[in-house]
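Hi, here's the filled form for the chain we discussed.

Project: internal
Contact: R.S.
Residues: 262
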Amino acid sequence: MIRALYTAASGMNAQQANIDNVAHNLANVNTAGFKKSRVEFEDMVYQQLKAPGSPTSAEGEAPIGLEAGLGARAVATARNFSSGNLRSTSSPLDLAIEGQGFFQIQMPGGETGYTRAGAFHLNGQGQIVTAEGYALQPNINIPANATSISISKDGIVSVIAAGQADPQQVGVIELAQFQNPAGLQARGGNLFTATIASGDPATATPGADGLGTLAQSFLEDSNVSVVEEMVNMILGQRAYEANSRVIRAADEMLSQVNSLSR
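And the returned structure, exactly as it came back:
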């Protein structure tokens, strides 16, 4: 009965992590470029009371053993990098990736971050930056006298300056891809950083080497499904409730044992 209390408590902790993850997904349902995640669980260590194959008589042996599991725990948060829906906007610096790849962002301290959120802006120096002011890499500067900005599917950034009719190329956007995107570390602010698990980034222009192409004046919506997350929330809530009932049942059994010993 004491074992049941701790086992059920581990199940409640695991489902709490599950509900926390569902809440995070739902909170970011309108976050551009957000990728949903799910919690993965595993069973915990077993207490072996009888080993399989142990002798039961002079000539017989047990075909199966006797063991008691000690609960479950959350071990990983797997991120789903499937594409979200594309939403049309009126900003020429809103970009969406149709296919695989990440934008490269210069983070404070010199580290490179990676994102699917393509809501970019211009800072005071004409650099293309994120809403946090982090520069897109490779660095691209838009001239102050530019009257229009055009970004092709393969990442070529062109502008038309005041008094000129022909477009002028000012830079090329490069994308990065990883052998294992699920191994990227989430850093907040729609940014990820590379890890040993993700592998090193491979960079190329959009449309090359299996990378997706760019869509100007579009944003990629979150890939969170509200209906799916609501179902996950109900399942997690029911599992949490079932484990709490186990604790209640074990407590009642202990109370009965205590009453017998009086």
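Let me know if anything looks off before we file it.
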